[in-house]
């Protein structure tokens, strides 16, 4: 089940929260500056990602603080055929594009893990544009190998449901308003992202078997999403119309966009 805290989640890492402390003049003691938590450092890295649109700078920020960061990138050739031949790939508005997608899994070398997916539709024609329903981008895992704590989900620009994400025992997914993102299509591209604080519910999995698999679910042809289903390596949506979709977490060569706990801990 989704781990919520009275329905409240972090709505945006870009919203600054001011924490005030009242100093008592009667106490002449100079108080030591509070050290940032691992979550604080992770959120700072996400601000770097959002400001620069560059996943390599996000990675460098964390590595400079002694974190271990594993990453994997792939390019998906679009269009992708759907399961129904009658759908036809020519009906996709994104009919000639490449989707660059990357996954990172990081550890602060103290058993705190964080996952992030980035994507970029930058290599496309000027007449290519997104379409409703929204796309779904997720991080999937084997049942009960990871979970997301309360307020542990994050998303950048054009993520529609950061505070009400789709969730199951097999992963987390968020909805990307690709039809509204005019900064990406035909303009050279921009990295978009989702991220999550990942916790281990038990030690039932070996580090190499505790995996994170990124998946992109592209939807088009109008309408809205009714529900989203997440399984290990797959995301699918149901619609209020006859909208169409495909999902990919594997490239044309069969390479899966997967990282493991062992990958993330390699440099610890």
Total DSSP helices: 3
Order of helices and strands: HHEEEEEEEEEEEEEH
Could you tell me the mean pLDDT? 82
**DSSP helix fraction:** 10-25%
The end-to-end span amounts to 31 Å
- How many separate domains? 1
User: What proportion of the residues form beta strands (DSSP E)?
Assistant: 25-35%
Instruction: Report Rg.
Output: 20 Å
Morphology call: globular
Major sheet details: 6 strands, antiparallel
**Uncertain parts:** 1-30, 83-90
Number of strands: 13
Q: In terms of structural class, how would the helical and strand content be classed? A: mainly beta
Structure explained in plain terms:
By secondary structure, this protein is mostly beta strands. It has one domain (38-82, 90-264). Helices cover 10% and strands 34% of the residues. Strands 4, 6, 7, 9, 12 and 13 form a six-stranded antiparallel β-sheet that branches. It starts with 37 loop residues before the first helix and ends with a helix. Mean pLDDT is 82; it is low at 1-30 and 83-90.
What layout of secondary structure does this protein have?
Layout: H1 38-52, H2 55-63, E1 68-78, E2 97-107, E3 113-124, E4 135-140, E5 153-155, E6 166-168, E7 171-176, E8 192-198, E9 211-220, E10 225-231, E11 234-239, E12 244-248, E13 258-260, H3 261-264
Antiparallel strand pairs: 1-2, 2-3, 3-8, 4-7, 4-9, 5-8, 6-7, 9-12, 9-13, 10-11
Helix pairs in contact: 1-2
């Amino acid at each position: 089940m989704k781990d919520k805290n009275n329905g409240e989640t972090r709505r945006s890492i870009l919203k600054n929260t001011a924490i005030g402390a009242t100093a008592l003049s009667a106490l002449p003691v100079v108080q030591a500056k509070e050290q940032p938590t691992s979550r604080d450092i992770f959120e700072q890295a996400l601000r770097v990602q959002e400001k620069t649109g560059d996943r390599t700078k996000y990675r460098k920020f964390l590595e400079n603080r002694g974190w271990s960061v594993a990453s994997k990138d792939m390019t998906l050739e679009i269009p992708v055929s759907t399961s129904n031949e009658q759908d036809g790939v020519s009906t996709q508005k994104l009919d000639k594009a490449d989707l660059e997608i990357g996954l990172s899994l990081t550890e602060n070398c103290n058993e705190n893990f964080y996952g992030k997916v980035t994507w970029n539709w930058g290599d496309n024609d000027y007449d290519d544009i997104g379409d409703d329903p929204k796309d779904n981008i997720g991080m999937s895992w084997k049942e009960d190998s990871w979970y997301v704590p309360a307020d542990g989900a994050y998303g950048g620009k054009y993520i529609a449901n950061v505070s009400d994400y789709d969730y199951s025992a097999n992963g987390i997914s968020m909805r990307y308003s690709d039809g509204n993102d005019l900064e990406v299509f035909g303009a050279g591209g921009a990295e978009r992202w989702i991220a999550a604080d990942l916790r281990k519910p038990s030690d039932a999995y070996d580090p190499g078997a505790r995996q994170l698999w990124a998946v992109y679910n592209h939807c088009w042809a109008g309408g809205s999403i009714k529900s989203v289903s997440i399984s290990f390596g797959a995301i699918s949506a149901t619609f209020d119309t006859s909208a169409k979709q495909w999902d990919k977490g594997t490239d044309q060569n069969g390479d899966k966009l997967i990282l493991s706990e062992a990958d993330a801990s390699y440099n610890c």
